[in-house]
Amino acid sequence: MAPIPGGECPIGAGVSHEGAHKPKIDAFRIATFPVTNAEYQRFVEASGHPAPKTSSFDSRHRLWDQLAGIQRQPVVNVSWHDAVAYCAWLAKSSGKPYRLPSEEEWELAARGGLKGKKYPWGDSIDKSMAWYGQKWKGPLTLREAGYGKPNDYGLYGMAGNVWQWTADWFVPEFNGRPVEEESRLYRVLRGGSWSNDENFLTVNYRNFNPPDTRDVFTGFRVALTEGK
What we know:
The protein is of the alpha+beta class. The chain has helices at about 35-45, 80-95, 105-110, and strands at about 1-5, 5-10, 25, 30, 165-170, 185-190, 205-210, 220, 225. Helix content is about 15%, strand content about 15%. The protein starts with a strand and ends with a strand.
């Protein structure tokens, strides 16, 4: 878990279809890597929670039928509800209040202390830094959770490989409306995936999906309130 200092972060700035706001974010901790298949397997075995369901993309390969060789890849085919269940199990088993990061926390962490930069490391990106622009070729389409270049907070996979669930409902524009006034249809995803081009991998790009969505593009990482 990497410590992330608090501060203001212009969430969504520079994305044409979004407004931006600058929330005050308290210090917190966030996982260095997305949750892996090996970590999620321990959760499934210990809790009895269902294993990730096969999606249409991996119906021929069935990722969890043969985990050998992909244990260190980010887990995919997990819904927002699955991610929350994992956090609840981890919190109970460790005695620490693990949770999903908020959208604001995720972006502050992804920026790595940099201001006004497109990607976690600056304004450039290539496939040695992040995994993107790929076509589905089965289980080995994804890369290990530690693939690429970390940002200045030591975080891997904040761009590419898998989209990551956050705790928040999607708010189309940051205009001061409480989340409770939204329709509560979608949860926010951040980071981009193995299939996207570099325009989806910027630190400010906001994506969303219904919370029951499961696909081979999406995983998650955990966060922890500082001092807890």
